């Protein structure tokens, strides 16, 4: 098993435990145990874990413990991450360049550019392979009419040592690009400047004046409306303190059977999440890539100078462990020390005033107020004071996280990347690969204390992320450039920690919606004098990149809490299942209106959540009356005069047969064969009308697929009635104010416009 500690998903945790590996793990496990002991002993205020008498034991410095690890332990740790190599590889660069050449000859310039980008990332720095990959990519970009990007790649190719006997090709291409740009300069430059200025200054991060932060024992920190909020009003706009891009799994390639399908990690900047065809690589590894040299530089100064050598280990550990480390690196030891000291001072003051009875436990804070309310404006302090629910998490999970934190701390120690002299606003020390911590002659004691502080911060954020991590989602178009219809799906591209968004409590029937936005490669991250954001104050420059906007989905009255859905929604899941998932993931029993009174909330009117969708709106085969399930598990006609009965097995079999046909039809449309897909859908239509009501979810999916087939063939008027039927089923399943219905209505508008 090649997965260490965590799977990539934030919800799944995997543990490797093989008998023949137990000895090799011993040193690491002993280290993590000592790590737990020391943190409980010396950092109880920092982690908010009560101290017990059994926790006070003799502590061996971690560097000394690491020295006792055998070579077998080291070899085993290396073997775990072997499948995630991120080293530069000239041979791999050649393979990607040759594949790019094949697509270039077939005039598939977009795929060619992406394959050349892969070659650029694998090619060793200042090598001939690097220069040739840049040159070839410039040719693809020219055909895609990305003239400025083409010029940039020409410069990079020449700087990387492009062969002199071929340089005339680049000079000719440069001349053609300049000619094309000069034709458009007079009409494009003013609008480009205006657009960049608007994007940079329009975003107002923070919470709107119509809501206020309140605190009590039951709900913790939460947002409450101080005046009426109308639907569509912006409640807050937030920027992540830190995020980590989610690598797309190989299973996606297998699902779509496309070897040249590119995952998120190849299409987006790892610093700002902007989509880009011409990524700028990290000079030290083959994985990290950016939309510009500026993003590359900022990532290096903020975190990547420490992460670069740990790339394979971080990919093996998973996104959550990676994000916990990145939050810690961005803050730096100085900021972490200040946060820890402030916790101690605040609790000592509160304790002396009689506001709390035990140290460092926000669950025991007085109802008179939140002791850390004054730090909401400070980005890291807002993250630092998020609850970690240590007491609710199982011993196995806490130990697993401690092992991970200990391992990361040890890896950083071995690389000598200490952050002692680093300040969050001064990254000069990050420009050097040299250790920035205390010198060796200063002794192991100081280095060990810094290591504990670094590791305890990683552990704290690991515990917080289990309950506070937020997936960044976007709508992605399928790569079908010549099709009349573009298939879109929502995908997760990153996992983030949002300071303000984390203040929102959960409801299974929320009164808000949220939308994530990311810049494009030319909207604020470009290099050169055209980038106006370099002259702006720091707080305005940081508004570029990814952000989230929370809007009211319905009227929010004075005094009403602002609520967000953590995942389980009343229109998609039964109450019992929602409460189980929320209890397992977030450690609370949901008592929102939807869970307390499902009928009042309208859950009973949504057939998709009464149980299995196969039991929703089924019709009698003989008289088309509604079927009802009796106590014996059989489906009986609701009309006593009919009396028809059928078994659950037969119903499930017929539904499964229709589902299989639907999946085949969708697959045919993905392969640009809509006529064949339509034939399948017409065959199954007669069967579906015999047993499914118009409001059944599967009926809606079949109608939507039929509409898509007609639209792909350009028969807009034939597509519209089927999409209207799909909208009826969608409304019945998800509700009148659902985003799902909004998407169907938007498609219907497009159909009528095209028709």
Shape: globular
- Average the pLDDT over all residues and give the rounded result: 75
Q: Give the distance, in angstroms, between the N- and C-terminal Cα atoms.
A: 54 Å
Which structural class is indicated by helix and strand composition?
Answer: alpha+beta
Biggest beta-sheet profile: 4 strands, antiparallel
User: Percent helix among the residues?
Assistant: 40-55%
Strand order of the largest sheet: 1-4-12-11
Query: What is the β-strand count?
Result: 16
Question: What's the tally of helices?
Answer: 26
Proportion of strand residues:
5-15%
State Rg.
29 Å
Which residue ranges are poorly predicted, with pLDDT under 50 across at least 5 consecutive positions?
Answer: 1-31, 35-71, 191-203, 250-259, 355-369, 417-441, 528-543, 602-614
Catalytic activity: L-lysyl-[protein] + S-adenosyl-L-methionine = N(6)-methyl-L-lysyl-[protein] + S-adenosyl-L-homocysteine + H(+)
Domain MYND-type: 269-308
Protein name: Protein-lysine N-methyltransferase SMYD4
Pfam family, one: zf-MYND
